[in-house]
Amino acid sequence: MIKVFPRFDEDLLVRLFHKGVKAQWSTADVDWNDPIQFSPSQSLALARMLTPVYLGEQSAMIGASVVLPQMANAGETSAQLYLSSFLMDEARHFEVLTNLYRRLGAEPLTIRQMPEMLRYHNRLRKGDRLDWVWGILISDIFAKNFYTLYAKAQPEALFGKLSGRILRDESRHQAFAEYYLKRSIPQVSGERVQALMGMKDELLGIMESMYQRLYADAEEVGMDGRGFLDRLRTDIETKARRIGLYDALPPSGRGPASVRFSTSSPEPSANPTPLSFRGLKSSRCSTCFLALLCQTPLFQRAQCV
Fold this sequence. Notes:
By secondary structure, the chain is mainly alpha-helical. The chain is about 65% helix and about 0% strand. It is built from eleven helices and no strands. The relative contact order is 0.12.
């Protein structure tokens, strides 16, 4: 893994690394006295809606530390270099959002309240570095759309300003993932490409499930959740075509994407319908089973924690 003098390509990833080094910032640069511009109920709703993004920042930070050795083993030195700055970005976002929760006077949802987050996190951990970069690109597109809403709607408020800062980092992350995938996909098999397409559909399906739970919170802060998901799906499909996923598919797999978000909005509910074990398939990770188990009436009556 360790080489004294590895091959070093002066490519886009090196330029993104240099750009990231120059653009570093920290919580000390944030004016935490900026106005919130949310009522107490809206602050709570934002805290709940921000939870998947917050967990995503942590997942990206942890995942990058796992993928770095894989890139070293593959001799991808420039990608290694860039990912080091990526780690710093995600660590900063994690710290900043933690401080934001304190300022909002609210806490994120727990895994028990939204087990889909654990499914999403575990899906990003499966596979090799190519799977991870593809999952990170999808997650970054989600984060970009979310932060853009508030950067535009509240440019002078605390979260609006934070969103603007984070968006500049996310733009580099997307450029990295798009470049890496566009360069890697022509070298993999059609079966591998189909698996990546399946991963996209799976992650979009999990996002839809999370939206079902956060519908009332989106309404509280005036966010069009359905429109948000529709734009998200369009952006992800556009990226899939741009990086060459559809071109690399076997002819039989080039039909329209299989996942479609439902057109009807769910009824707001403070108590979402408990998850069912019906149709549950086995996986390598038992944690998701435990998260589902804690949702059953039997465990809830027993005050399982």
